[in-house]
């Protein structure tokens, strides 16, 4: 009898934890909050880059890795959107939670047309935690306003429709043709 009670309690705890993670992973930012000051990552060339470098643009920061299948699935859509919306003020930035050599080897095959940054796994996890990704899962994205406010965050892969809706809702309207 005691083992049955322990099993039931364990199931309840597991269900609550799963529900909590689901809620965390699927809730965007309700109110805009400032991007933490002083966040810096290295480019693949070793030069430091701060997020203030893209101030004045709508920035989609997409953390990824070469070994992350959902990340690799999402990248072609990000490449397409960078090309489509750059003139309207979108800048996609792709911090890679990976070995820089592995990342460099994937840039050509993936056709990445936006800045790719890197860092040690520990530093990247620390930055993702500061940006609201407690579990450290990938892909993880944040949308940053031109004035440096975090507008939205997503743990997990975006669908193409979700990305377009998110970007369109925060960019100025396209000029009349």
Write up this protein.
This protein is α+β, with helices and mostly antiparallel strands. It has 2 domains: 1-30; 32-168, 3-Layer(aba) Sandwich (Glutaredoxin). It contains 5 helices and 8 strands.
Task: Describe, in short, the structure shown.
This protein has 177 residues and is an alpha+beta fold. Helix content is 41%, strand content 21%. Residues 14-30 have low confidence and may be disordered.
List keywords for this structure.
single chain; 177 residues; alpha+beta; Glutaredoxin; 2 domains; 8-stranded mixed sheet; 8 strands; 41% helix
Secondary structure topology:
Layout: H1 2-26, E1 33-34, E2 40-43, E3 48-50, E4 58-63, H2 69-85, E5 90-96, H3 100-110, E6 116-118, H4 121-130, E7 140-144, E8 149-155, H5 160-168
Parallel strand pairs: 4-5, 5-6
Antiparallel strand pairs: 1-8, 2-3, 2-6, 4-7, 7-8
Question: Major sheet, described briefly?
Answer: 8 strands, mixed
**How does CATH name the architecture of the largest domain?**
3-Layer(aba) Sandwich
What low-confidence regions span 5 or more consecutive residues with pLDDT below 50? 14-30
| Shape descriptor | globular
What's the overall average pLDDT, rounded? 86
Instruction: Give the structural class.
Output: alpha+beta
| Beta-strand proportion | 15-25%
Strand and helix order: HEEEEHEHEHEEH
| CATH topology name of the largest domain | Glutaredoxin
Q: What is the share of helical residues?
A: 40-55%
CATH homologous superfamily heading of the largest domain: Glutaredoxin
Total number of domains: 2
If strands are numbered along the chain, what order do they take across the biggest sheet? 1-8-7-4-5-6-2-3
Output the CATH class name of the largest domain: Alpha Beta
Helix run count: 5
Number of strands: 8
């Amino acid at each position: 009898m005691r083992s049955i009670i322990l099993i039931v309690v364990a199931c309840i705890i597991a269900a609550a934890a799963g529900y909590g993670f689901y809620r965390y992973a699927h809730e965007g930012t309700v109110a805009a909050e400032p991007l933490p000051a002083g966040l810096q990552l290295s480019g693949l060339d070793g030069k430091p880059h701060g997020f203030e470098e893209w101030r004045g643009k709508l920035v989609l920061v997409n953390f990824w890795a070469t070994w992350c299948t959902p990340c690799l699935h999402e990248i072609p859509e990000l490449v397409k959107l960078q090309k489509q919306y750059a003139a309207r003020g979108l800048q996609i930035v792709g911090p890679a939670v990976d070995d820089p050599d592995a990342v460099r080897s994937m840039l050509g095959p993936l056709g990445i047309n936006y800045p790719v940054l890197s860092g040690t796994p520990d530093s990247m996890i620390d930055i993702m935690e500061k940006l609201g990704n407690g579990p450290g899962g990938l892909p993880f994205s944040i949308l940053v306003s031109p004035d440096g406010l975090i507008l939205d965050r997503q743990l997990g892969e975006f669908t193409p429709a979700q990305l377009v809706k998110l970007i369109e809702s925060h960019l100025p309207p396209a000029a009349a043709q």
